[in-house]
Amino acid sequence: MRTVVFDLDGTLADTAGDLIASANAALAELGHPPQLVMGADDATAFAGGRAMLRLAASRMGIDDAEGLADAGYQPLLEAYGRDIDLHTTLYDGAVAAVDRLRARGDATGICTNKPEGLAVELIERLGLTERFPALIGADTLETRKPDAAPLVETISRLGGNRGMAVLIGDTITDRKTALAAGIPCILVTFGPTGRAVADLNPEGLLEHYDDLERIIDQVLA
């Protein structure tokens, strides 16, 4: 049985708009003007809430970026939880590709650095819950990606083995996670960094979800 594990943000769904809105909401709660721009700062959004707040600190000339990140992180999570799917969209062909994988007998799961509760809420709102019987988030275990443990645990919960598993992702974090776990990685090229992910030397590149099965079969051949 092939086991296909997906990252969530920037891989299955374009969540950048809602992430950026939540960062700006957190800044407003702290008395600061908005600093993150949808479209321009998507790559930072996919790096996580703290990364967005650090960028905001830099733009405002605040030396204590970690202090701002600490102060703003919980308000950011709360804002994101309230409006988690206002702007979020699934990438073209993603759902159909997952359905094809499951129809041919592949197991599918999610390994994300989004907090588990928020990840579960998002995939429920997107109508994906039944397609991903295993989901590991940033706080499910004691470690998060790029540590191998979350990915290995996702594979285990799906009843798979690393010899027939692959990680679909979009960033260097996913690449490092796959390397740590000793499994191949396919990186999507439709994220904010485009084909620059090729520089990470993944085992496969995915231009569109229509090609997913073919690339998985090549990688796991």
TrEMBL record:
<dbReference type="InterPro" id="IPR023198">
    <property type="entry name" value="PGP-like_dom2"/>
</dbReference>
<dbReference type="InterPro" id="IPR050155">
    <property type="entry name" value="HAD-like_hydrolase_sf"/>
</dbReference>
<dbReference type="InterPro" id="IPR023214">
    <property type="entry name" value="HAD_sf"/>
</dbReference>
<protein>
    <recommendedName>
        <fullName>phosphoglycolate phosphatase</fullName>
        <ecNumber>3.1.3.18</ecNumber>
    </recommendedName>
</protein>
<dbReference type="GO" id="GO:0008967">
    <property type="term" value="F:phosphoglycolate phosphatase activity"/>
</dbReference>
<dbReference type="GO" id="GO:0005829">
    <property type="term" value="C:cytosol"/>
</dbReference>
<comment type="similarity">
    <text>Belongs to the HAD-like hydrolase superfamily. CbbY/CbbZ/Gph/YieH family.</text>
</comment>
<keyword id="KW-0378">Hydrolase</keyword>
<dbReference type="InterPro" id="IPR041492">
    <property type="entry name" value="HAD_2"/>
</dbReference>
<dbReference type="InterPro" id="IPR036412">
    <property type="entry name" value="HAD-like_sf"/>
</dbReference>
<comment type="pathway">
    <text>Organic acid metabolism; glycolate biosynthesis; glycolate from 2-phosphoglycolate: step 1/1.</text>
</comment>
<dbReference type="Pfam" id="PF13419">
    <property type="entry name" value="HAD_2"/>
</dbReference>
<dbReference type="GO" id="GO:0006281">
    <property type="term" value="P:DNA repair"/>
</dbReference>
